[in-house]
Amino acid sequence: MLMRILQLIEIASSRLQGKGWGAGTNKKEFSHASSFFDKPPSLCIDIGGNKGLYTEEIFNRFPQCKIIVFEPSISNSNLLHSKFLENENIIIEQKAVSNFEGETNLYSDKDGSGLASLTKRRLEHFGISFENTEQVLVIKFEDYWKNQYALQKLI
To answer: Structural domain boundaries of the chain?
Structure first.
């Protein structure tokens, strides 16, 4: 009984933070999450940009905001580059972000999947198999940020 109460509290807390509505509700999720801003952000980071739906929401609401999108999948990264080609405020980084640096497999059920992960998920009970793999570059965000900051100081 106590575990169920704690689960319900966690779910409610996540929803209040704008988390957990899923890709089908990007507009609702982003609208709720952006309500916490007291002024428009100048920089947003989209980690795991997939096909750019969340990035579109950021741009539509805050068109002056610089957006850095991390997406390791080749097909999705190519899609993002062509989708946001004309927008100089959107930077696409074809990299995964994790707690290590190097190369690893990106696992998915199909090319371009929103379920892709650096972890081989076990979702066979839903009829989903993560047999599709792609070798991707992985960075630590803090290293990326330090390097970008150092570059800005040089410019």
So the answer is: 29-154
